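Open question from group meeting: does this chain pack into something compact, or does most of it stay loose? Before anyone orders reagents, we agreed to write out a predicted structure and look at it together. Recording both the input and the output here so the notebook holds the full record.
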Amino acid sequence: MGCKNIKKEKLSPEGWECRSVVNKSSGQVIYSYFFKRKRVPHKYIKTQIAKRAVGYTLLKKDIKNIKYWANLSQAMHEENGHDFSQNFQRSSEIYTDLNLNLKAILVATVTFYGKLFTTADGRKVKLEKKMFSGEMLDTHNRLMGFRNHFAAHSGDEGIEWARLAFAISKKKGSFSAPYIGTELFQPSSVHFEDKHFELFDFIEKHIDTKREQVMQKVLDAELDKIGLTLIK
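Structure tokens returned:
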């Protein structure tokens, strides 16, 4: 079969375990479930409520990626002695590995952040910005601005811009050769502050609560099909 090493994950309630192997040729992942070390049969649930649970699982993965990238960005800034007391800093070299890596992290972070608030065929749930208020709403809107006007599209909010300048020198009634210059502004990264991480933590807790509620409904529905009721 050519499978990679087996990954084991302890499940709740106690006694359950999930094992997965990856076929190195096809990339197919095969899962098996065990209760007290004994393999048990399983099926896949395709109800609408199950699709919502899957959606929250994907949201959970996205917010964990976002938090990881934001922390990585900050670590890279600190390792290179960047001064966070200044809102804007100009880099002496645009096309350095550091700047390009920071920009890639920024694009990934705000793109995945935007995914949390948009629906797709493979994910039937999304978050709503009405869950925020005050400074948290301002922080959310700023991140969405980076997503909408920089990462996903080139917008009109001043996050990135370019313009042409025409210059000509006049001296004693004569003109030098005219010149057209290009001016460009595009961010390499942002300073992820406490307010950003508080926002990310708030979102993750919200997702966890919603997912737990929906997973309980899925479990109750499956038990009801076989005439069982979970004693709580």
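Observations to bring back to the group:
The two ends are 42 Å apart (CA to CA).
The first helix runs from residue 48 to 79.
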